[in-house]
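tokens incoming
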């Protein structure tokens, strides 16, 4: 963009219309710059290109992994990106994650729900749209401050300062970043998946994550009772998402194929198979059951299939579901991942029971034997007890090295009494290095925490409540919240400004000139936060 040239170009347009005499070209350019994306579909196209570039950069250098945090409200996503720009100078390789878990728990009109795809389908696209609305407002807010600073420099006759600010405007980096959006198991049949994917893309999603569970049996990835579908069913839904991207012109949209097979021991149906060794036959080969010799061994209601050249009577539960062999889960994960990559998926998601780099690497190495460019989106889940997991991993490593561990009880390592120990310090280092190590050794392109802001909202509320309703009273807010906002330079301390009051005042002046009735005068209490 070029602020000066844009003003010159728009001056010509306005000058050609004699009745537009009250329209200021510079004001109109400012409004254009504050609204970089005219539609949310434009956002999807813009961010798909960014993700593809980031994926290529990771292929060339696995230290260039990407990260995100799950956000359950547009304001949370906005503040996250404002903080990222504040601390790191830019948004490169930082995304947002939209968690189906948090949509269910926090955004459903039914009230809080478990992560079982019971929430309204429209709630997902609504949150994507809301997140991008708030990110666009963050652009407008930051640029508005630059425009006001430019006006101050003009009033002061400071040409050098004006040049400096215009350069910042010309090189402005948007807060709008890719969102990896959770479509659960597709919310129904492939047509339902297509319709919902289309709605999500129109809301701005450039990347959709879909899992291989049965839609109407869907469970949280870290709970029991997960039921997977045959590959043909899952691939139909991957195709449905791809068609939605292509229909809307997002030709480089990204699909993340998630497998829950490591923790899923059940299937709802036996796969269709036409010949030995095809996908259906491979899926069925993992079924638990007993081989039989004759029809006399078939009881009323039994199902029998031909597998490995023999008759197999799969184990069927009272629920009607079929059970997989317990030793088949890793083989199923590998087959799921290879099949998804060979049939239209761009990235993989393997849901694991613990955050263990060696375990992830074991599976990814097997996948890469067939698909060398395989890359993972990995769930750094709050469902893991991170402290306990890494303390136990360090304990096990030290045990192999022959260290004296008599001071530690492996089963009780979460105890506060171990917090200041050498083992705890080493475990914290392992946690600190987990993302870089997993990206370097186990093919993780993107690290996300699914629902961190669910927990941070609860924690900060708990801390404020303890003090405010206790002996601290108003000091709990003054010291624990507002003073921290001021010291950390968090924009929300001027909440009127953050909500758009100054932007509205400037618009009023554009529209009405000196007659504008503005909120930001000398009696606005927000002025108490100037010069902090």
């Amino acid at each position: 963009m070029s602020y000066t040239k844009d003003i010159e170009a728009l001056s010509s347009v306005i000058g050609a219309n004699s009745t537009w005499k009250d329209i200021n070209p510079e004001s109109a350019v400012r409004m254009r710059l504050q609204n970089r994306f005219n539609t949310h579909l434009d956002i999807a196209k813009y961010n798909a290109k960014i993700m593809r570039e980031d994926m290529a950069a990771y292929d060339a250098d696995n230290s260039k992994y990407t990260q995100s945090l799950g956000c359950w409200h547009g304001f949370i996503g906005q503040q996250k990106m404002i903080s990222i720009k504040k601390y790191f100078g830019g948004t490169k390789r930082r995304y947002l994650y939209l968690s189906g878990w948090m949509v269910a728990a926090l955004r459903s009109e039914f009230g809080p729900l478990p992560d079982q795809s019971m929430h309204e389908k429209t709630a997902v696209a609504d949150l994507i749209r809301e997140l991008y609305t708030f990110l666009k407002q963050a652009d407008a807010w930051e640029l508005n401050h630059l425009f006001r600073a430019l006006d101050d420099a003009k009033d002061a006759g400071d040409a050098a300062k004006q040049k400096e600010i215009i350069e910042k405007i010309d090189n402005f980096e948007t807060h709008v970043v890719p969102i990896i959006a959770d479509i659960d198991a597709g919310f129904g049949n492939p047509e339902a998946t297509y319709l919902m994917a289309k709605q999500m893309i129109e809301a701005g999603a450039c990347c959709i994550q879909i899992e291989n569970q049965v839609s109407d049996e869907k469970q949280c990835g870290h709970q029991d009772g997960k039921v997977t579908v045959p590959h043909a069913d899952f691939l139909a839904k991957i195709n449905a998402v791809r068609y939605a991207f292509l229909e809307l012109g997002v030709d480089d949209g990204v699909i993340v194929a998630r497998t829950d097979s490591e923790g899923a021991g059940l299937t709802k149906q036996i796969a269709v198979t036409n010949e030995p060794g095809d996908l259906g036959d491979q899926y069925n080969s993992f079924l638990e059951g007993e081989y039989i010799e004759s029809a006399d061994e078939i009881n009323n209601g039994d199902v029998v299939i031909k597998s490995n050249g023999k008759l197999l009577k799969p184990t069927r539960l009272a629920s009607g579901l079929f059970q997989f062999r317990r030793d088949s889960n890793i083989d199923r994960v590998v087959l799921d991942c290879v099949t998804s990559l060979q049939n239209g998926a761009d990235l993989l998601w393997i849901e694991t029971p613990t955050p263990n780099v060696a375990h992830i690497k074991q599976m990814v190495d097997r996948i890469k034997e067939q698909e060398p460019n395989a890359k993972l989106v990995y769930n750094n889940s709050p469902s893991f007890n991170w402290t306990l997991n890494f303390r136990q991993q360090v304990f096990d490593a030290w045990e192999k090295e022959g260290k004296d561990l008599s001071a530690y009880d492996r089963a009780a390592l979460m105890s506060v009494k171990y917090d200041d120990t050498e083992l705890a310090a080493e475990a914290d280092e392992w946690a600190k290095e987990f993302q870089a190590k997993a990206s370097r050794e186990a093919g993780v392109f993107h690290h996300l925490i699914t629902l961190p802001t669910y927990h941070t909202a609860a924690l900060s509320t708990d801390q404020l409540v303890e003090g405010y309703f206790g002996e601290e009273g108003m000091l709990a807010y003054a010291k624990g919240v507002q003073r921290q906002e001021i010291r950390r330079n968090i924009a929300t301390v001027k909440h009127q400004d953050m909500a758009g009051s100054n932007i509205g005042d400037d618009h009023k002046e554009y529209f009405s000139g000196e007659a504008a009735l503005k909120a930001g005068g000398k009696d606005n209490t927000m002025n108490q936060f100037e010069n902090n």
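note: The longest strand covers residues 254-259.
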